[in-house]
Amino acid sequence: MTRFTLPRDLYHGKGALEALKTLEGKRAIICVGGGSMKRFGFLDKAVSYLKEAGMEVELFEGIESDPSVDTVMRGAAAMEKFQPDWIVAMGGGSPIDAAKAMWIKYEYPSITFEDMCKVFGIPKLRRKAHFCAVSSTSGTATEVTAFSIITDYEKGIKYPIADFEITPDVAIVDPELAETMPKKLVAHTGMDAMTHAIEAYVSTAHCDYTDPLALFAIMHIQKELIPSYNGDMEKRDTMHNAQCLAGMAFSNALLGIVHSMAHKTGAAFADYGAHIIHGAANAMYLPKVIAFNAKNPGAKLRYGIIADYMGLGGANDDEKVKLLISYLRHMNDELNIPHCIQHYGADSYPTEKGFVPEDVFLARISEIAKNACSDACTASNPRIPTQEEMEQLLKACYYDTEVDF
Ligand SMILES: NC(=O)c1ccc[n+]([C@@H]2O[C@H](COP(=O)([O-])OP(=O)(O)OC[C@H]3O[C@@H](n4cnc5c(N)ncnc54)[C@H](O)[C@@H]3O)[C@@H](O)[C@H]2O)c1
Ligand SMILES: [Zn+2]
Fold first, then answer.
1. Bridge partners, 89 (sequence order)
2. How far is residue 44's CA from residue 1's CA, in Å, rounded to a whole number?
3. Does residue 318 share a domain with residue 241?
4. 1, 212, 279, 330 — which has fewest CB within 10 A?
5. Which atom of ligand 1 is nearest to the CA of 145?
6. 381 and 260 within one domain
7. Residues 6 or more apart from 399 whose CB is under 8 A from it?
8. Of 362 and 376, which is predicted with more confidence?
9. pTM value?
């Protein structure tokens, strides 16, 4: 038996934020990030819609990018004090993910972060509050997923919390919120969405319900991401739906080792002054992982189907895999994303000498590979790498060398 879970309600289209008026309850806490929602007026609108619904409203502001365990604990304490029956998380993946973890801690005050990270081990939620997610970036699709990614900065590791319990009750996919994204954010979140759809399509947990969502998302992202990046607002709007469809696919089909590697490299060099941003990490690693996975005949066939849906040509599956890899690399070029860690600057743009020094990368590679192999996303990858293969893959992602093993 396999489970397929999505939010109970999804409101989409311009102005969908207004659906907040339909929530029923006494107290709502709004969780937001660093200020973009306030700056563009969306936070004020949300507050007034919730007040119109008769609710008392409190804000939990300032959730940082790649949220920490500490922020989760602070947010849960604020919830414990205010006792909301609705948690409304607004913004990109970071504030929504943080709010999901706060929700668990609010419902179960004695739960530890380690307990939360036990895959599909979250106890029943919704005894105190329901959850509404309003996404402002077009990538993570956390508004519809069963995941939350929290960073343990002491260990320099991102941990996925995974359980259908944290799939939101209500998702609001209002493209007006995505229109204010700066270009770099469009690029990174868009390639994150492409990676979600491709990994979901070749995952060992894919099924008839997830396949159409993944393929449809891939075709849309192929057509829409680059024009959206270059300022086409109609395409920006439809990309907001496409990333959400990709999220519906991967929340149920799970992901693969592109994400395992992105989770475990993202914060691993924070002591050298930057993160490898989630979407950029995925964009760099995806072509390498496709070459690795395509050694598995089942995965090769499915990459071939993806290439066909994208209209890339190719006379056989080997050619189709090559064309898919080069198309994705061309997308990275168009989106100003480097091809490898060696050329990844602290500002995320391509540069001759990236912020991760070679000797530091090589000194940490064995630990990172070990962590990536045990990441929750590895189990559903179509080819399970050994520690040695994972190290080789990471090296290919550092130097941009060909993967032929
Ligand atoms: N839960 C999941 O299923 C899932 C999936 C993939 C990634 N993630 C996680 O999500 C996080 C990344 O989320 P993200 O890529 O959405 O970015 P983010 O939430 O970290 O936001 C990045 C920056 O963009 C700003 N911003 C957000 N929306 C904006 C808008 N509309 N206009 C202008 N500025 C805006 C924010 O203020 C912030 O400074 C990472 O921690 C990643 O690991 C989660
Ligand atoms: Zn992702």
1. 31, 133
2. 44
3. yes
4. 1
5. 3
6. yes
7. 340, 342
8. 362
9. 0.96
Q: What is the CATH number of the domain that holds 220?
A: 1.20.1090.10
Residue 192 C-alpha to ligand 2 middle, in angstroms? 5
Sheet holding 27-31, edge to edge: 9-12, 170-173, 130-135, 86-91, 27-31, 56-60
Question: Which pair of structure tokens corresponds to residue 17?
Answer: 């934020």
* Unique residue bearing structure tokens 């989770």: 263
The single-letter code of the amino acid at 110 is: S
- Give the helix ranges, DSSP H, for 25-144: 36-39, 42-52, 69-82, 93-107, 113-116
Q: Whose CA is nearest to atom 33 of ligand 1?
A: 181
Least confident of 40-49, 96-105, 153-162, 274-283: 153-162
Residues with C-beta less than 6 Å from any ligand 1 atom:
33-34, 36, 65-66, 91-94, 97, 136-137, 139-140, 142, 145, 147-149, 158, 177-178, 180-182, 185, 189, 192, 278-279
Last residue of a domain, one of 118, 146, 178: 178
The environment of the single-atom ion ligand 2, i.e. residues with CB closer than 5 A, is: 192
Q: Which atom of ligand 1 is the closest one to the Cα of 188?
A: 15
- The count of structural domains within the chain is 2
- For residue 330, give every residue at least 6 positions away whose Cβ sits within 8 Å of its Cβ, in sequence order, or none: none
- CATH number of the CATH domain containing 125: 3.40.50.1970
